[in-house]
Amino acid sequence: MTGLYPFNHGLRDLMHLKINKNKETIGEVFKKNGYNTYAAVTGSLFPAHGFSRGFDEYEQRELWDNLHSQWYNKLLKMFKSGYFEEPYFFFLHIWDLHQPRFVEKDLDNASFGKTLYERSVSSIDKKLGELFKLTNDDVTIVTGDHGEKISSNLMEDMMDRFKRLYYPHVRWKRKRFHRKISKMFRFALNIMQNTDSDFGATHGYHLYRPLITTPLIIKGLGPKGEENSLVRHIDILPSLRYELFGQKGDYDGVPIFKNDSLPNEAYSEIFLDNELKEEKWLISLMKNGYQYIFKPRGDHEKLYHKEKGEINDKKIELEMRKRVEEINPEVIEGYKLDNRVDMEREIIENKLRSVGYLD
After folding, report:
1. I want to staple 357 with a disulfide (CB 3.0 to 4.6 A). Which of 141, 194, 282, 352 is the partner?
2. Pairing of strands 290-294, 301-305
3. Longest dimension (CA), the chain
4. CB neighbours of 236 closer than 8 A, spacing ≥ 6?
């Protein structure tokens, strides 16, 4: 949304922080260039965090208004009727791969995936295909945020299917009762999933390469074909701004269609709980086929090679850590948090609880 790393755009954590006021969002960039701007989001993209800045219309729908509901049929009608005034930028954010996962009946068989997760992807693919047929020659970008461990045996798949029935009737309608048993759910899932996490979490708390390698499909810009080089989310906005408007900006990302501008490294970070404690800070750097993961205020330190797996090489670890310190000096100095959401804190906590981020 900003073309910046977290320590530069400010939104390090959904509970406490928001995007810095002096950092442009993608909505603001398109608005300043004469576009009508629309967004349809769900989950945790709350206006209080700054996501809505620059959008003429910013719809934040409930979780049950998804690609498999009447809301989606309404969205298709809006595209067919010309509701979005040209030229327009439309940002669609979906939540359908989160629990509970829905699958159309005609796709719920092994031809469309071995697991409920894979079949859900097939179902989402079908729905998005219907939408993309209506976008004609528009520039279209599809991407995702992160992966997670998925059902790999019958017991895990049964739990997935049970949650699909449970969530609409209990979690969304009887929230107090849901909070009481949610800890039991998490305990059972952690046992069944047998996660290899060093931190005991199963969703959104990993920086392993397979989980932060996400889809990125771009139609209408750049050369055709598949690019196997390193490309990052922070490169999307600089690329759009350069290609569509001929403009550069002060970004951590780069215009990926510009000659010799592909990146050679990717920085990632996350805090391992709902409190901004430096000892819970986890950082990753991918560069030259290696991935270095470490806790700046802890003893967790691992080095991986994309072909050999986990390796021990103190020289490379030292080089990678030094590069992280160059990218983000806060690793040495300590982070600065001057963009808090204190006034909206209670509202945000309630919303995060409603989408499953808090018990």
Report:
1. 352
2. antiparallel
3. 61
4. 3, 26, 141, 143, 216, 253
